[in-house]
Structures are given as structure tokens and as C-alpha cells.
Amino acid sequence: MDLLLIRHGVTDWNKQKRYLGHTDIGLLQSELETLDGLKKQIYGQPFSYVFSSDLRRCQETLDYLNVKMSVIVDERLREINFGDWEGKTYDELKCDANYQEWLNDWEQSSPPNGEAWSEFTSRIDLFLDELIKRVQKEQKNKFPIVMVTHGGVIRYLLLKFYASRTLWDFPVEHGKALKLSLIWQRGEWICNSLSVVPTQESEN
């Protein structure tokens, strides 16, 4: 089973390095060209399914990529909710004791009025369980399964499928995709191949 994990394009808050979770803002029109290499690479490719977060930045990314398939929108593919820290920068938060505690132990603490790591991962796990059952029932895994989603979601999926050892092993860039080839081994899906789409060579 192959997954094509696409991070959405660039937003204004991304450019300003502001925490962006559930806040629903669109893409920067001036940054759409960052999607051109990926758009060219996947043009006309067949996919088994196309899933997307319901947030505007993912929907607009998918529209720009012009994937010719019906899209299954699922809010469980949203980024983690940063609560009271939405829209804030590191410099604005660095003196906050709760923020420092979260930086030091993000698996156990959570943003005020935001989402705990366990809540975040649980909803993604539930989505994956349903996806795998769907694939098995419909026997549709001949082509890659696309997910247009967010940096935090992609980083967690890399961890879950043993493609990385920490959240920060691989850069998860806007407008690029990571292709994971998964195999069933010892009762679970694990990644046995990881590649970036588009490659540096194909962009030149």
C-alpha cells in the first residue's frame, strides 16, 4: 500500500512562523508557484483514493494541483489545535511557563484550550483504521492513496509507520509530498521505502 502525503501550500501565517492549527485561512496567492513542481509531477497519475483535511489551505492546494478524482474530505486530517496559541509566534510565547512546559514535554502537556497529543494521534489512528478497512473491503490499493494534510499529521504518520525515529527526522515542506511504500509485516504496516515528490532533479 502506497501513501502520497502532501503538505498544503504556504499561508501568510506560515511565512510569519505563527502557530497554525485549526484556524482556517487560505493560501498566499504569491506562493502558489511552490506547488508547480508537484503539480507537474502528479499530473494525470491514477490514485486509489484522494483524502483531504477540510481546512481551506488543504482544499485550495488540492484545487491548484488539479487532481482529477473525487475527494473525500475528513476533518480528522486537520493539524493539531494550538488553542490559545493559534496565531502566536515563538517570540510572543517564549516567556510563557505553560509554553515552555509544552516545548519540553509536548506528549504530556497541551496548549491552553487546545488539543493534547493523545487526542491528536487518536483521531488520526481512527481515520487510518477506517481507511485500511475500506481498502481491504473495496480492494483498491493498486495505486497510491493521496492525503492532502498538514505538517504535524505527516510527521506523526512517519513515526507511526517507522519511517522516522523522531518528529523532526525529515523536513516536511510546503507543496511537496512524501511517498511511503508500506508492507504488512508482523501484524502491522511498516514503511519500507520513502521518497520525496518532486525530486530535486525533476524540479530543474
Automatic annotation (TrEMBL):
What does the entry give for GO biological process? Answer: negative regulation of glycolytic process; regulation of pentose-phosphate shunt
**UniProt key word Hydrolase:** yes
Pfam families per record: His_Phos_1
Protein's UniProt keywords contain Transcription regulation: no
One MF annotation (Gene Ontology) recorded for this entry: fructose-2,6-bisphosphate 2-phosphatase activity
Highest taxon of the source?
Bacteria
Q: Tell me the protein's name.
A: Alpha-ribazole phosphatase
What organism does this protein naturally occur in? Anaerobacillus alkalidiazotrophicus
Taxonomic path? Bacteria, Bacillati, Bacillota, Bacilli, Bacillales
